[in-house]
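Hi Q.,

Before the meeting this afternoon, I wanted you to have the glutamine prediction in hand. No need to reply - just skim if you have a minute. The sequence and ligand are here:
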Amino acid sequence: MTYREAYDRGSLELKAAEITDFNNDARLLLEYVCKTDRTTLLAYGDREISEDEEAKYFALLKKRAGHVPLQHLTGIQGFMGLDFCVNENVLVPRPDTETLVEEVLRELHDGMSILDMCTGSGCILLSLLNYSNDCVGVGADISEKALEVAKENAKRLGIDADFIESNLFENVEGVFDIIVSNPPYIRTCEIEELMPEVRDHDPFIALNGKEDGVSFYREIIRDAGEHLKGGGFLAFEIGCDQGKTVSDMMKDAGYKDVEVFKDLGGLDRVVKGRKKFNV
Ligand code: GLN
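Predicted structure with the ligand bound:
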């Protein structure tokens, strides 16, 4: 079977299984199995794939047709131009979260300290450290298994960062220039309605924002002040309907310059505010 035939059959199988990006996913799985890239697949469509590759490709297609996320099959998700390892123990990094990283990068200066609360795969913290100089960072997460992934990512990217197992601020020590967080924010009753890739494969604890969806913002805002320097920034990713609620929570807690930013889809996605200087 040639690249071209494999790709065409793969696309058809995924289309029949109602996978939204069937062409894209078939191509990426073929590239993954054949350890090649898009240009080679296109330029050498009549190149034969081996029997082993064929067997592996069709086994993966079957899983993808069963709505296993592409990223769980390849083990990798790109984020902020970096490759992150992912598995079933971490939320797959989302393009929307790049909006949060970009907003924080505007405030991040050489030598600052960062706390990433609910770090998951570590994608936010490690991107911030990668694109800054001499900054130090701590990633906190309640899940030991998620932290294993974050540590692996730090190692692979050659970035120094500390990771601590902590239920929110329970084991966090010290004060930081910036606290950033993409906490779980889906209302429990809405999780059922999510696409199967997310509902059945992202960790439930990484999605579940409890009854009103904003429970983690409430708790983080309540305790962040103790760990934030005067003038330091607290920045959140939010659900697109949570901008007003979360910015009001921050204003009520005394934060200044509270702003809501939109993602590339034009939806509210980030809330950022500054802690008052201690006088
Ligand atoms: N911080 C990680 C991310 O943004 C994990 C977030 C989470 O588990 N809710 O991808």
